[in-house]
Amino acid sequence: MKEINPKIRIKDIAILAGVSEGTVDRVLHQRGDVSEKSKQAVTKVLDEMNYTPNIYARSLASKKQFRFVCLFPQFEAGEYWESVDKGFDLAAKDFIHHNVHIYKHYFNQYDVNSFETISAKAFEDEPDAVFISPIFRDETVKFTTKLNELKIPFSFIDSMIDGHDFLTYYGQNSFKSGFIAAKLLLSSLPDYSQILVIRTKRKGSVSNQTLSRNAGFLQYVQEFKLENQFQLINIEFNNNDEESNRKALEDVFRANSNIKAAITFNSKVYRLARHLQNINHANVRLIGYDLLDQNVSYLQQGVVSYLIAQRPDKQAYFTVRDMCKELIFKQEIKKINYVPIDILLKENIEDYMNFTE
Question: Architecture of 66-172+311-354 per CATH?
Answer without folding.
Answer: 3-Layer(aba) Sandwich (3.40)
